[in-house]
Amino acid sequence: MGQLRIEKVQEFIKQEISNMILTELKDPRIGFVTVTRVEATGDLHQAKVFVSVMGSDESKAQSLKGLQSALGYLRTEIGKRIQLRITPELSFHLDETLDHSVKIQKLLDQIKQNEAGNADES
């Protein structure tokens, strides 16, 4: 299966799941969730859906639980909306990239402040 086709399927799944989370899922556990990317296997049997969740660790865990409980519905809907012989098995994963970059930025800001403070003392 061509890489371009896999990328198109990944993008389609990302868009559809984003829309379904926003407009169709009514689970109160699901907070502010953004689908950041989808990684499908070459045979399209499985697709990892990476999500970024705003809030505390507890709210992230609750959002993931809500998404996990909606997996059957989401997969069924993807199957109806996509023209493939096989609908990929979906799994949700927290995308920590944004959190990680925020932490790095804070550390860099602290270093700059420390260097500025040291320069003032000299």
Describe this entry's structure for a reader:
There is one protein chain. This protein is an alpha+beta fold and 122 residues long. The longest helix has 25 residues, at 97-121. It has helices at residues 3-23, 57-69, 71-81, 97-121, and strands at 33-40, 46-53, 89-94. The termini are far apart. It has a single domain, classed as GMP Synthetase, Chain A, domain 3. Strand 1 (33-40) and strand 2 form a beta hairpin.
Task: Give a brief outline of the structure.
Its main location: cytoplasm. The chain is 57% helix and 18% strand. It has 122 residues and is of the alpha+beta class.
Q: What are its keywords?
A:
122 residues; alpha+beta; GMP Synthetase, Chain A, domain 3; 4 helices; elongated
CATH topology name: GMP Synthetase, Chain A, domain 3
The biggest beta sheet reads: 3 strands, mixed
What is the 3D shape?
elongated
Strand elements, count: 3
Task: Name the CATH class.
Answer: Alpha Beta
Radius of gyration equals: 19 Å
| Helix-strand sequence | HEEHHEH
Tell me the strand order in the biggest sheet.
1-2-3
Number of domains: 1
Q: Structural class per helix/strand content? A: alpha+beta
Distance between the termini: 63 Å
| Annotated CATH homologous superfamily | K homology (KH) domain
Q: For the residues shown, what is the average pLDDT?
A: 90
